[in-house]
Design goal:
Blueprint lengths: L2 H33 L11 H9 L19 H11 L22 H9 L19 H11 L24 H9 L18 H12 L2 H7 L7 E5 L5 H9 L5 E3 L1 E5 L5 E3 L3 H9 L3 E7 L4 H9 L1 H18 L3 E5 L8 H18 L2 E6 L13 H7 L2 E5 L17 H12 L7 E6 L1 E9 L4 E10 H11 L4 E3 L4 E7 L3 E5 L3 H12 L5 E5 L7 H14 L4
Parallel strand pairs: 1-2, 1-15, 2-5, 3-5, 5-6, 6-7, 7-8, 8-9, 9-15
Antiparallel strand pairs: 3-4, 10-11, 10-14, 12-13, 13-14
Helix pairs in contact: 2-7, 3-4, 5-6, 11-12, 12-13, 15-17, 17-18
Length: about 550
């Protein structure tokens, strides 16, 4: 063996030992970094809490290697920690909630997410004051709201020595966090207007996370409800691409129609069926009547024709292996109420024999001819699901301009339906469209001159083009905007915030799921907001 060979072997042995020892040391280096993420917390009483929250991705520093423990925490910073703690996702909302929270700021998505679930409100006049130091009484209010606690109605605890300095709106929250022993003041003083330091915030959040019941809720797996997406105005390929970016687990393509000849027409696209199977999505094909009142009457009034039509539909269900049918019969004459119920009963019986699901779309009870054909109780008895179309509060061609789907109107329609249909059978339809109204306004009413149907994407384009700033309406729970273009235009906006609030309202009633008309009309932020709403609504902090 040559000297060069010996040297080469020695080099390889040395290199091997170096790599081996480096690999052995790496875990301890990583652990050291995790235990010492900041250079300025060694003297902080909250060092343990700061490190724990940092490792859990809840709190970060003010700059690399620096936490600034004694520095006041801002409203934006503290709200961000709450959103992270609750395992919610930042929302890059198309419509900003506050004039002083631009979308370019790092905290924009966190403040939007918190606002959409009702956790935070602004400081007045459409502002949030994100960089203002958070006061201790504000922190108390946010903690109580975030964990769905009911503020103490009266002074049930021994008063703080500075209780007179606590704002009247904040007193119930301060009493509640004191009772929970999350914030207990110092030597009998609460110091409500004093800024909360970053180390105080860490200590507070750590105590909150130490509540075993609450931390268990935050970490639990959320079971998804029915999420039905209707196809309209999209090719099969566009529909598929939209679904890939959505929360939808039930597809409803428009395939079957009753047309003027009284026959059932089949437009099944087998490529969608194949795609749905590959992506683990159910298919409830839509059955429509093309708004043809006369053809619908001819079909429903004849028992023989109804039976034949139903058999044809069942043949398609079996032929294509469909998981369900979604019946969308609209503009049905009030005299056909009993006939329509008979049709749903017959279809339900045959669908159940095949193991498929029957869902039926209905409009909210308006006390008009438009809904007179729906026997809600009977439909709820025979169908597996009743889909409430929670839109068209103000419709194209109507005399008055207004919201497509205000929260009070949807809530009223849902409550009315719940009187006849069990919650576990109700699916709420939400709008992914809106109307751009050209109006004439006076002191008592807003007259619609005409309107244009627009998607939520088009709505965003209009907002950018005309630079209008929507204003939030607390009664309707949505934004309203006005602009001029060959006349006065007004839009009652549907966006991530308005839809999230309707979604949460329905979740409180534990309905079966949601449907969306139409898929492709939404902006990407909508799905993030609805996922946040579903997660947050599932939490029970008792």
């Amino acid at each position: 063996m040559t000297r060069r060979t010996n040297a080469k072997i020695l080099f390889l042995i040395t290199l091997t030992l170096f790599v081996y020892n480096s690999c052995k040391l790496q875990p301890s280096i990583t652990a050291m970094k995790q235990n010492n993420p900041f250079q300025d917390i060694d003297m902080s009483y909250a060092k343990k809490e700061i490190v724990a929250l940092y490792n859990d991705n809840i709190m970060t520093g003010t700059e690399p290697g620096r936490f600034a423990p004694k520095q006041s925490i801002t409203r934006a910073e503290f709200l961000t920690t709450l959103v992270r703690l609750l395992r919610l996702t930042p929302v890059q909302a198309e419509v900003p909630s506050y004039s002083d929270v631009p979308s370019s700021k790092w905290y924009y998505g966190y403040i939007q997410a918190a606002t959409e679930i009702g956790l935070a409100a602004g400081t007045g006049f459409g502002t949030f004051s994100p960089n203002r130091p958070l006061s201790r009484q504000e922190a108390a209010a946010w903690i109580v709201r975030a964990f769905k606690q009911h503020p103490a109605p009266t002074a049930t605890l021994p008063p703080y020595r500075d209780q007179s300095e606590i704002a009247s709106w904040a007193l119930p929250y301060v009493q509640t966090v004191t009772k929970l022993q999350f914030m207990v003041g110092y030597e009998g003083f609460f110091q409500p207007k004093q800024s909360l330091s970053r180390q105080e915030a860490a200590s507070l959040l750590y105590r909150v996370l130490g509540h075993k019941t609450w931390s268990g809720e935050i970490g639990k797996v959320i079971s998804q409800k029915i999420q039905l997406g209707w196809q309209y105005g999209q090719t099969a390929e566009q529909y598929k691409q939209s679904l890939l970016k959505s929360n939808v687990n039930v597809m409803s393509p428009r395939w079957y129609f009753l047309e003027g000849d009284g026959q059932l027409h089949d437009y099944t696209d087998t490529s969608i069926l194949k795609w749905a199977k590959q992506h683990n999505k159910a298919v409830w094909a839509m059955l429509g009547n093309s708004f043809d009142m006369e053809a619908t009457h001819d079909l429903l009034s004849s028992q023989a024709e109804t039976a034949s039509f139903t058999r044809s539909l069942i043949t398609f269900v079996q032929k294509y292996g469909l998981q369900g049918i979604n019946v969308d019969f609209e503009n049905v004459h009030s005299d056909d109420r009993a006939y329509f119920t008979r049709f749903i009963k017959l279809l339900s019986e045959q669908m159940h024999e095949t193991g498929a699901v029957l869902s039926v779309n209905v409009s909210p009870e308006l006390g008009t001819d438009w809904t007179a054909a729906f026997d809600y109780k009977a439909i709820g008895q025979y169908a597996d699901y009743v889909v409430l179309m929670g839109y068209d509060e103000h419709w194209s061609g109507g005399s008055y301009a207004g919201s497509v789907s205000s929260l009070p109107w949807v809530r009223n329609g849902l409550e009315t339906l719940r009187q006849d249909v069990p919650d576990q059978k109700i699916i709420l339809g939400l709008p992914f469209y809106n109307r751009d109204w050209r109006i004439q306004e006076n002191s008592t009413s807003i007259t619609a001159l005409d309107s244009t149907d627009i998607t939520l994407k088009k709505q965003s384009e209009l907002m950018q083009s005309y630079k209008f700033r929507p204003a939030w309406n607390d009664m309707l729970n949505q934004y309203i905007a006005t602009y001029n273009d060959s006349g006065l235009h007004r839009i009652w906006l549907e966006d991530s915030r308005s839809l999230s609030l309707k979604y949460q309202m329905a979740l409180e009633r534990d309905i079966a799921g949601f449907a969306y008309w139409p898929i492709g009309g939404e902006t990407p932020d909508i799905w993030t907001s609805l996922s946040n709403a579903e997660r947050y609504s599932s939490y029970s902090f008792y």
